[in-house]
Amino acid sequence: MIDQVTSEINIWWIRRDIRLTDNPALQRALDGGRAVLPVFILDDTLLSASAPKRKAYLYAVLRGLMIELERRGSKLIVRSGNPCHEIPKFVHETGARAVYAMEDYSPYSRQRDECVRRQVNLQWVGGQTVFHPSLIQTVDGRPYTVFTPFSRAWKALPFPNQALWEPPDQFPKIPNIISNPVPLDPPPAGFPASEVRSLERLQLFVSETIYRYQEDRNRLDIDGTSRLSAPLRFGVLSPRLAALEALRAINTAPDEPSRRSAETWLNELIWREFYQSILYHFPHVLTQAFNPSLRSINWQGSADELQAWKEGRTGYPVVDAAMRQLAATGWMHNRARMIVASFLVKDLLINWQEGERWFMQNLVDGDPSANNGGWQWTAGVGTDAAPYFRIFNPVLQGKKFDPSGNYVRSWLPELMHVPDEYIHTPWWMPLSLQQSLGCIIGMNYPLPLVDHATARERTLIAYRVRA
Length: 467
Prior knowledge:
The chain is of the alpha/beta class. 47% of the residues lie in helices and 6% in strands.
């Protein structure tokens, strides 16, 4: 045990709050001027199930936090193993009075935290969402399972807009404690891999892009989204701060279309909280469809078709471009996520859980609640789900949201020179044109795995039997 008065030491157990600004757990740990030991446990269970690019992003933001703490005279202490063992061991080693941690809502996290709480003085603090899931309920005390009334209830609550908490310039001095190194995997490109860069991106987005968000957010060929999903997923960015900036943008919008655009982005933040609420109240959604009547659909797709989908070889350009973007970058536009999910489930008739797993194995921003909620929505089997008979046409989706084919060409170089009129239906190109372009459909680029119209009818029958 270190040579200090034990009542002077608190532990800030960092999980999905890898930031200093607007961090309630850190604020509580610092109350009273006590020494605070920031510790992050590289959890074997979580790391073994994480996408390589997601782990690389985690390591990058931890290194960023390490730099910011050192600037303030503190340090990040990193340990590896099972938190249920490592946190109590760390408490014993340091003689800490209490452990402060931001509450997490996934089933694994709740089991982990309860295990730790039975051994040490663990204080849970809110902050992963603007409002705790238990606060947004119907008049008779039940959780909402439809987004629109959840959103209304969310907006009706008094917004916690107290002054933004900023960390002190200097932290209380802490003893010299051994720490494990953070792996040096290079972070994936395109993501703000630090709190400072995340805050900069937020400010840039709410000052410009947010006012075109409603119009641009679905365009695959336009950089019209915030690209803040990864910082929000890891808590590098405060969700309260993001929502507060959205509200400010709404209140200062220059005109009505701009105001609606800012409201649309706020709704996306509320969707994030809705799915976290669903996971909190209905943890079984991680293993089965929310809708009991749609838990035993007769899935008919083959392993070869699933593999073709994963590799971007379906023969539908917008689907393949999105899947190759995912493999290369660890990210995919939200509209593209809906398109590829609909194709897997409703064109190939493959279980939505296969897609859910593949996304979690690849997405930098992979979050159990949002990923599960999005897949169940598209599959039509979850809460607030799209009707099962809503089936995206991949050709029409491509034409609508990538009208000139720029997105497709950026990820499918074999289609680089295909004219706009055929970019989403290359199988319709005359053979002479295919030959002149050096792009023979069926050789240089695959024929469609399925005929959409035929596949649609098959899916309607499969769902109708269970609905």
